[in-house]
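Hey,
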Amino acid sequence: MQPMAPSDPSASEGLLDRVRGVLVQAEAAYAGTAAELRLRDVRERLDEPLRLAVAGKVKAGKSTLLNALVGEELAPTDAGECTRIVTWYREGPGYKVTAVPKSGAPVQIPFARDGGAIDVDLQGRSADDLTQLVVEWPSSSLRQLTLIDTPGIASLSADVSARAEAFLTPEDDRATPADAVLYLMKHLHAADMGFLEAFHDEEMAQATPVNAIAVLSRADEVAVGRIDAMESAATIAARYRTDPKVRRVAQTVVPVAGLLAQSGATLREAEHDALERLSKTDPGDLELLFLSADRFVNADASLTSLEREALIDRFGLFGVRLSAELIRTGQAPNASKLSEQLVNRSGLHELRRVLLSQFAARRDVLKSRSALLAVEAAVRAAPTGSANDLLSEVERVSAGAHEFAELRLLNALRTGMIPAKLEEVSAMELLLGAEGTTPPERLGLPLDADVGQLRAAAAEALSRWQRRAESPMASREISDASRVLVRTCEGLLTTLHS
């Protein structure tokens, strides 16, 4: 029987079933112990949305971007106590916040919200008393992704940095609770690379480039608030994407103006009105106002100082400047149009596309991978009489699943382990789903390509990689990689003929 392509839903279901079987076997081996409860949680986690951790240095814009992704201002963006705690945002039937202490049972705690971020009442508890907060919120945006806001790394407070690093790169060989990570950086600094390298590990352990995406956050600040700031940021992100050091630790780099995305997604009518009044200022005078945020706030313009300060806080200098220009030129005559324009220009849509095509589409594979890591961790921590059987079963599932073979090859390509020319590497990555896992995306065709076009392209790719696999001139690494791609093409053809 021909192997099925990972883009076929039944293929992923088969992988999940096999992984569930391993977890049931592991639970039985550790019956009556704390490990059994942990493994049961892992099994139940297979049916949850993908867990995406948002990480980065202090003030990288993590909470702001999280709010933009949700489409609501939920996460506090100030320097309060709650930003020091790992906080989960997941879809729920109602509105609830739960505090999970280091010792004792989780407890529901009160919160308030008055048109802005959630204000949580820790009821006398400090960040040091808690392992995490869990916010349940009815939101369609949280249906596919559970978002996890982590404290900033490289903080002046060693305790704050330690919480983020302990969550994302746990010691004692435990798997991280996150299935994937979105890493925010303003520029590529040594601290950023150090963290990503720590998050990354070999083969199927911990993290790989496939489940890490780097975000050039606060992209609007790259060109100091100029109207072409996002174009400049896109150029920088493109350069990072081809940097071998970055390719080893992240699948791609996406420029996003998080503040612009958040303010666009949560725009208020009163803000549009204020920006409209501002747009009527003489263009020459406006240019002088936009030389700096301080100059704008303190200027004698058509708005009060409080209004100008509020606009800078919500939109940043670039956002105010762009909004005034969009309104002045008639592209944003009302709040709805301005909201749409700001979100479109923020880079948020491209980030969502990458998240859905790279993470959500690989949800079952990434979750299965995390689950097998958890079984391996349990065996290493407390070997049992059936330890060898469990490890053999993990190895059997890992080696037999073509989805994992694709991940391993994609990781090898990203880390430079396959000696191939850039064009060949790009072709391999495309077929492996680096730009999306649907048949058209894998084959480099338009999404509306008909079945005949897809079959012809898949057959051509199959022939190409069969020749490459059998070529006496090909290195062992290229031959092995080509055989994986042959199976991928066979799976695509099976799917397209079913």
